[in-house]
């Protein structure tokens, strides 16, 4: 059930957003009705409902403009408190959501200053209405909720920054390991080059010297040695060419300034796996979008690592890659099926514990997305990665 819900929400982000805001509006409206049911003084109903609708509508911009949205929701909440509505967590729902996203997205100092300002505003509003409500409900409870939500947003922010730093550190370690292996390979090739030069050139030198020594006394034998000399030098040239070819770095200067790989190089990636015997089918749903360089690199690396796992561990030699574009996010799905009559192989997450899945998950998390990998009920393995197209996705309140 959870997997089905995740797939559906990944395909319909707008519907999920609308549903969540509708539920929040219903909760806020119930907070308006609570005041009329538990207090002797019953404020007019329609101002509270209008302010609730305005607060929830402002949350549509909470990711792109967190501070203005926080200001709008805070003013609406304080006006409701001044009108006599009881500041319960239900009534303060839009303000709490806006405060969470502010601490999640805005600079730390600005976020905490905004949280303190909202707390002061709520406290002042509570004091103005204390003659109608208990001090605990009017002052301490609302202020505590604002500070708790601000702390939660800061905690999630730290978690994501830590995940991003871990991914960067892992990438640096992989680069260092790659450099070390390159140095070792070049040392091996240098030894081979030394052996080629020493053996073939020494042999050619000896043949030439012997031919010169026998030229006057045994010309026939000298000619035979000279006739074999082109073969020796040709073999030396062939081995030198193959060995030196491994050391050529024609692309080294360009690598320093070449752009990072992205989904634009996906056809080349598919072709390379086809040459290795893996048949990859790529489908695209929705309108293609230009991605930010970091997001483009993350999407490419996730697909690359997923296809590598298929090529190494899967029982079949076919894989499917699906790119689903929506206005807010990109969903990447890489699946492979089990060959008929064969037992489903253990997925990389169980039988082949390594750094592949960890690297994919950390890349997705660092980009503000999610990644799910595991065996499919019908057999085979599936990797589903969801990446936000407009910055980190904070649609979930939890970390």
Description:
The protein has 399 residues and is α+β, with helices and mostly antiparallel strands. Helix content is 64%, strand content 9%. The protein has helices at residues 2-11, 13-38, 45-58, 66-82, 93-105, 108-128, 135-214, 219-247, 252-255, 266-275, 293-313, 356-366; strands at residues 279-285, 318-325, 329-336, 370-375, 381-388. Strand 4 and strand 5 form a beta hairpin.
Q: Major beta sheet, specifics?
A: 5 strands, mixed
Biggest sheet, strands in spatial order? Answer: 1-2-3-5-4
Give the structural class: alpha+beta
Strand elements, count: 5
Summary keywords:
Single alpha-helices involved in coiled-coils or other helix-helix interfaces; Heat Shock Protein 90; alpha+beta; 399 residues; 3 domains; disordered C terminus; 64% helix; 12 helices
């Amino acid at each position: 059930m959870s997997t089905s819900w995740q797939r559906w929400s990944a395909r319909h982000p707008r519907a999920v957003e609308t549903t969540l805001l509708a539920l929040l509006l219903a909760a806020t409206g119930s907070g308006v009705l609570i005041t009329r049911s538990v207090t002797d003084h019953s404020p007019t109903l329609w101002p509270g409902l209008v302010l609730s609708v305005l607060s929830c509508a402002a949350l549509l911009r909470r990711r792109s403009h967190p501070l203005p949205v926080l200001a709008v929701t805070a003013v609406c909440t304080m006006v409701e408190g001044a009108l006599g509505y009881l500041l319960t967590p239900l009534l303060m729902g839009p303000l709490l959501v806006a405060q969470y996203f502010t601490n999640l997205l805005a600079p730390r100092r600005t976020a905490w200053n905004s949280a303190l300002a909202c707390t002061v505003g709520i406290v002042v509003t509570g004091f103005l209405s204390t003659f109608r409500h208990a001090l605990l409900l009017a002052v301490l409870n609302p202020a505590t909720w604002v500070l708790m939500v601000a702390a939660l947003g800061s905690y999630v922010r730290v978690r994501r920054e830590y995940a991003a730093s871990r991914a960067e550190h892992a990438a640096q370690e992989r680069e260092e390991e790659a450099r070390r292996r390159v140095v070792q390979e070049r040392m091996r090739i240098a030894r081979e080059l030394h052996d080629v030069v020493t053996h073939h050139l020494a042999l050619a030198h000896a043949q030439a010297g012997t031919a010169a020594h026998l030229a006057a006394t045994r010309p026939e034998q000298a000619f035979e040695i000279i006739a074999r000399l082109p073969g020796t030098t040709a073999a030396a040239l062939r081995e030198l060419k193959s060995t030196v070819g491994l050391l050529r770095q024609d692309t080294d200067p360009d690598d320093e300034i070449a752009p990072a790989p992205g989904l634009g190089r996906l056809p080349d990636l598919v072709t390379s796996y086809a040459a290795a015997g893996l048949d990859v089918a790529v489908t695209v749903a929705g309108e293609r979008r230009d991605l930010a360089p970091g997001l483009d690199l993350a999407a490419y690396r996730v697909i690359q690592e997923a296809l590598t796992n298929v090529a190494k561990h899967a029982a079949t030699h076919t894989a499917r890659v699906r790119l689903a574009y929506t206005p807010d996010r990109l969903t990447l799905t890489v699946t492979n099926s089990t060959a008929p009559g064969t037992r489903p192989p253990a997925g990389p997450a169980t039988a082949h514990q390594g750094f592949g899945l960890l690297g994919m998950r950390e890349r997705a998390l660092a980009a503000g997305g999610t990644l799910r990998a595991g065996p499919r009920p019908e057999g085979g393995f599936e990797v589903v990665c969801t990446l936000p197209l407009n910055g980190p996705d904070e649609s979930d309140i939890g970390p």
